[in-house]
Amino acid sequence: MKQHGALALAEAVKKQYAAGGTDYSLEPMALEDEAGAPVGKIQNGDSVIFCCRRGEREIELTEAFTDAGFTPFERTYLDDLHFVIMTMYHDKFKDLPIAFAPEKVVKPVAQVISEAGLTQFHCAESEKYAHVTFFFNGGENAPFPGETDLRVPSPKGIPFDQKPELSLPEVSVKVKEAVTKGYDFIITNFANGDVIGHTSNKEAKLKACEVISKTVDDVARFAKDNGYVVAITADHGNIETLFDAKGKPHVAHTTNLVPFIVLDPQGRKITVRDGSLRDVSPTILSVLGLPQPDLMDGQSLIESAEPFTNPKFMLIILDGWGFGTQDENDAIWLADTPEWDRLLEEFPNGKLRAWGEFVGLQAGKPGNSEAGHTNLGAGRVVAQDDVRMDKAIQSGDFMKNPVFLAAIRRAKDSGHPLHLLSYLTKKSSHGCIDYPLMLARMAKAEGLEDVILHIIFDGRSTEPGSAPALLAELEAQLDEIGVGLVVDGIGRGIALDRDRNYEKIRKAYENLVYGTGERYRL
């Protein structure tokens, strides 16, 4: 029986587990031959398909491979590399071969505010900075006229659960400064609920909830006292659920409802109806007294018997903060969060749907930060990449995609291998292992035998310690297809950094190109 390398990588993973490693942070591992030389490294003339679809976490590694002027670390630039990306997650990659062109949001709320001549301030720490800029602005990287964007660095050099407050204190200071400067519209993201919610550290989750409770109360009341209508909401649920049905730490997004609380500086008698994330932008425009574009089909969440407009508006997004079960399995309920409780008791509020078809995902699928912020800013349901790609899979168009076929045929005609940067998960918003498996089938059908898989371990949408079992399943699938060799692996926390920590990206790049990781053999 031909070996496809996945089982050998599984044994290397187990060794890192024994030393305390986790899927998310697994150090680079590289297959070597009997002579001690690395196998299957990416070389000039090769073809590569980066089988991740989402965006902000894929940017830095893509830069390292495709930007001739790349300077964050010294590397060999492969000037004859055919590098395919699944979706266009940044305008700087517009000239690369892109398998699925993005759906651009027309007239997001930030653009409407800008065209009205108003000023706006967008602020988050780096873990969620792209969400209040690129995603909220409908896929636009450059700020609109009158828009100021501020990125606060997230903590570096330590596991996030060792600092559950993250950089929220610094974010809150910057947002309050923006209030004093009088911006017409302010949007901010509090990252803790999602970032700490993805860890298995219960105490860190409770501490994060307490910090969020105090900070959101402080910032919201400060803005209200300075004349802002303040709305507090979330992009999806996460941190509220501590354990799954098997009693294991819950580290993924949920399909729970999320809050929408309104603080009115004038104390008008209003009610807040239930809805979904697409209704938030129409609410913002309604309060600011601006017309709603025809493409926005959401409706304002605020109902009032008297005219309700205000010259200034603040939107606070609590990332990964849903309504839980209000019992011992609910981190927000269990933590010491009296400020949050008072906000719900004192101010009108409703509940929003932030998952599945309500944010352009598959029915019943938990929401994610990208879908959440895109829908929040668009004022309508925006079809997400997974839906578009799933439709292509169901229709058979995925297997006929001309960009994929061009990469496969280039590899075959040139005698060089096809490399698949493969995400080892079944349900992440970044992608899934189905994509490289389908590409391997396409390569086989085209007569290309030299298909190399480079594994990126998840650790967020997969159960802790599940990588060896997933690799065993992958081995069987590759054996059934008849092509494919797994040659290395690395944790998502290293290869898919989004905090400009290029030392991590250097590790990933050098393992992919030079095989510098911890060696193992078939």
Based on the model shown, name its key terms.
522 residues, alpha/beta, 2,3-Bisphosphoglycerate-independent phosphoglycerate mutase, substrate-binding domain, Alkaline Phosphatase, subunit A, 2 domains, eight-stranded mixed beta sheet, 17 helices, 18 strands
Structure characterization notes:
- The protein is built from 17 helices and 18 strands.
- It has two domains: 6-101 and 387-520, 3-Layer(aba) Sandwich (2,3-Bisphosphoglycerate-independent phosphoglycerate mutase, substrate-binding domain), CATH 3.40.1450; 109-382, Alkaline Phosphatase, subunit A (3-Layer(aba) Sandwich).
- 54% of the residues are buried.
- Helix 15 links the parallel strand 16 and strand 17.
- The chain has an eight-stranded mixed beta sheet with strand order 4-3-2-15-16-17-1-18, with helices on both faces.
- By secondary structure, the chain is α/β, with parallel strands linked by helices.
- It is globular, with a radius of gyration of 23 Å.
- The mean pLDDT is 95.
Question: How do you describe this structure in short?
Answer:
With about 525 residues, the protein is α/β, with parallel strands linked by helices. The chain contains 17 helices and 18 strands. It has helices spanning about 5-20, 60-65, 110-115, 130-135, 170-180, 190-195, 200-225, 280-290, 330-335, 340-345, 370-380, 385-395, 400-415, 435-445, 465-480, 490-495, 500-515, and strands at about 30, 45-50, 80-85, 100, 120-125, 145-150, 185-190, 230-235, 260-265, 270, 275, 300-305, 315-320, 350-355, 420-425, 450-455, 485-490, 520.
